[in-house]
Design brief:
By secondary structure, this protein is α+β, with helices and mostly antiparallel strands. The protein has 22 helices and 24 strands. The strands form five sheets. The chain has a nine-stranded mixed beta sheet. It has a five-stranded mixed beta sheet with strand order 12-13-16-14-15. Helix 1 runs parallel beside helix 4, helix 18 crosses helix 21 and helix 21 crosses helix 22.
Length: 655
């Protein structure tokens, strides 16, 4: 470890590095005082004093850490049984010293050595202390939930303690070490003595926290928050031990024997959150291979949902022994919001994490688990659409990732779960709903993508569709441009078609207004102006800046718009790729002009009258820039645009 770095850890094994200022000289481990980073000290003060209304949660966090330490050692002992020789029964012990007003939580788990104690002491925040501080709302009842979410569990001890000592000895090693701090900005690390492996955390309680020395209070807290822990939790009193939890894996019990409160507390344990589970799915599969699963969908969006590593948080157990929470492929990335455990009976206990990635049994389990979760979501969507709308708001963008990229056997199931905002109705719309509302003659599922719902709703490309009452799906998540452009097979034999691309094909769809607008021969009366001469003039002026200039059938109110040609990339997708430097400059687009617009009619008249006034050239350039602005694109020459606009305004005042 370099002197300018400190690594912190939490019971969910997430690692974060905080860079500290350079320290002069070498760091000496023996009885050396060290200072926390300024930002860390600030956060410790917040944890100790602001997150106060539910301070009993400190015990849950410390017990959870101890349980994970036992799980880690149990896993390592599968390949090196000397690590647990003489002590194979894992337990977590709580003891009270009334005289010294201390509470001690001990475990016989993996423990830590000198370097690990300095590197792995708790964690402040997986995404940095700044993210934690910025997330605080000032509402204590809400802010306390961030303790687990941001992994500051260990430091929740300072809500009730004026000083904390940690004495620890790593399994397989002889030396023990002590970490000590009052949480006010400094801590010490020094050699200590400890007869056996594991860690003991002693809290010197504050005067107003003496309630946590009472046996009944401790029993109540453990029962409420930690009854699901599979490691025995015992209260040590006068050399006698009293069991405080069932000490059986909750997922091995019958569903009828588990209360909703017990499910909720286990969910909070595996998710490090304080919200309620939005959905709970608990089942046991038997057949070609046996496994149990207890999975949850959160009711709130985790802060790291869009972290670049896109890792799931489902823990893998084998015969109730924790193996890993980082098993690639166990749960697909687009279900990474799912929390919980999967316990397989048929995998060998000593399977390595490398072999897990290639295990065909896990591939089959992953397929079955994915199918089960999607089916549960489908039931929710059908029976409780309002609740499903809340889920979609939180996790819809992630679920849609499953529609893009590699072939997905669950694609049809995902399409049934996808929901959209619409141009013609409130609330969310499914593809099934959309098909039921399609107009006579309509062959495609129309959509538009953009950076925000507000920008999309104001797009001129919707005008012709709105006039005919044709529904357009409004997509504003970044993933939308990618998955929908790869959906070549469409849905139920209907292709997806962007309203900003190609010909709109609106002439094939008739509305009520069209039916009364036919002459005696049955042909539609044309109210359009012949714009062919104007189109030729605009083409001459714009040259290669546009791919083509055409008469528009999609515009009713606006004078012009830009569209992508049939074989070109959708405009919003190109914009996203340009922002990420995946493509160079924007490709030339097709400029469409509205023959019914007064401005276009006026320009047509000038062209027909044979005028070659520079105003026509300025008008062509202004129409082009106007179309770019409406699409959220910057004008290439702002000064020239302003000068042309001023000139047009001057002429209008002179008229």
């Amino acid at each position: 470890m370099t002197p300018d770095q400190i690594f912190l850890w939490s019971h969910d094994t997430q690692i974060v590095k905080i860079v500290l200022p350079k320290l002069a000289g070498e760091i000496k481990m023996a009885s050396t005082k060290r200072s926390f980073q300024a930002e860390v000290s600030k956060l410790l003060n917040i944890v100790a004093h602001s997150l106060y209304s539910e301070r009993e949660v400190f015990l849950r966090e410390l017990i959870s850490n101890a349980a994970d330490a036992c799980d880690k050692l149990r896993y390592l002992a599968l390949t090196d049984d000397t690590l647990v020789s003489g002590d194979t029964n894992f337990s977590i012990k709580i003891s009270v010293d009334q005289k010294n007003k201390t509470l001690t939580i001990s475990d016989n788990g993996i423990g830590m050595n000198e370097n690990e104690l300095d590197e792995n002491l708790g964690t402040i925040a997986r995404s940095g202390t700044g993210a934690f501080v910025e997330s605080l709302s000032g509402d204590e009842s809400k802010d306390v939930g961030l303790i687990g979410q941001f992994g500051v569990g260990f430091y929740s001890a300072f809500m009730v303690a004026e000083k904390v000592d940690v004495i620890t000895r790593k399994a397989g090693e002889q030396d023990a070490w002590r970490w000590s701090s009052d949480g006010l900005g400094e801590y010490t690390v020094e050699k200590a003595s400890k007869e056996d492996r594991g860690s003991s955390i002693t809290l010197y309680l504050k005067k107003d926290a003496k309630e946590f020395l009472e046996d009944l209070r401790l029993r109540t807290i453990v029962k409420a928050y930690s009854d699901h822990i599979s490691i025995p939790i015992v209260l040590v009193k006068d050399k006698e031990e009293e069991s405080l939890n069932e000490a059986s894996a909750i997922w091995t019990r019958q569903k009828k024997d588990i209360t909703q409160d017990q499910y909720t507390e286990f969910y909070r344990h595996v998710s490090s959150g304080y919200d309620e589970p939005w959905m709970t799915s608990h089942w046991r599969a038997e057949g070609r291979f046996d496994y149990s699963a207890l999975l949850f969908v959160p009711s709130k969006r985790p802060f790291d949902l869009f972290h670049p590593d896109r890792k799931h948080r489902v823990k893998l157990y084998v015969k109730k022994v924790f193996i890993t929470d980082d098993c690639e492929g166990l749960v697909p990335e687009y279900l990474r919001f799912v929390k919980g455990i999967i316990d397989c009976e048929d995998l060998p206990l000593n399977v390595s994490r490398e072999l897990l990635q290639k295990n065909q049994m896990l591939t089959s389990i992953s397929t079955a688990v994915t199918k089960r979760v999607l089916n549960e979501l489908k039931k929710k969507a059908e029976k409780k659409p309002e609740e499903y709308a809340e889920f979609w708001e939180n996790f819809g963008a992630v679920l849609k990732e499953g529609l893009y990229g590699i072939p997905n056997e669950h694609k049809n199931s995902l399409l049934e779960l996808v929901r959209f905002k619409s141009s013609t109705r409130d609330g969310l719309v499914s593809l099934k709903d959309y098909l039921a509302g399609m107009k006579d003659g309509q062959e495609n599922i129309y959509y538009i993508t953009g950076e925000s719902q507000e920008a999309i709703k104001n797009s001129p490309h919707l005008e012709g569709f709105a006039a005919k009452g044709i529904e357009v799906l409004l997509l504003s998540d970044p993933i939308d441009d990618f998955w929908i452009s790869s959906m070549f097979e469409g849905y139920e034999d209907k292709k997806f078609s962007s309203v900003t691309k190609g010909s709109a094909e609106l002439e094939n769809i008739e509305d009520a207004k069209d039916k009364g607008a036919k002459d005696k021969k049955g042909e539609k009366k044309s109210k359009k102006t012949d714009v062919s001469l104007l189109i030729a003039s605009i083409k001459l002026t714009l040259g290669e800046a546009v791919k083509d200039v055409k008469e528009s059938i999609r515009l009713t109110d606006s004078a012009c718009c830009l569209v992508a040609d049939e074989g070109d990339m959708d405009m919003n997708l190109e914009r996203i790729l340009r922002q990420h430097q995946q493509v160079a400059d924007a490709a030339p687009r097709v400029l469409e002009i509205n023959p019914t617009h007064p401005l276009i009619k006026g320009l047509v008249k000038k062209v027909k009258d044979g005028e070659t006034d520079p105003i026509l050239e300025d008008a062509a350039l202004l129409l082009f820039d106007q179309a770019k602005i409406m699409d959220g694109e910057p004008v290439k020459d702002v000064k020239a645009f302003a000068q042309r606009m001023s000139k047009v305004m001057e002429l209008s005042l002179q008229a």
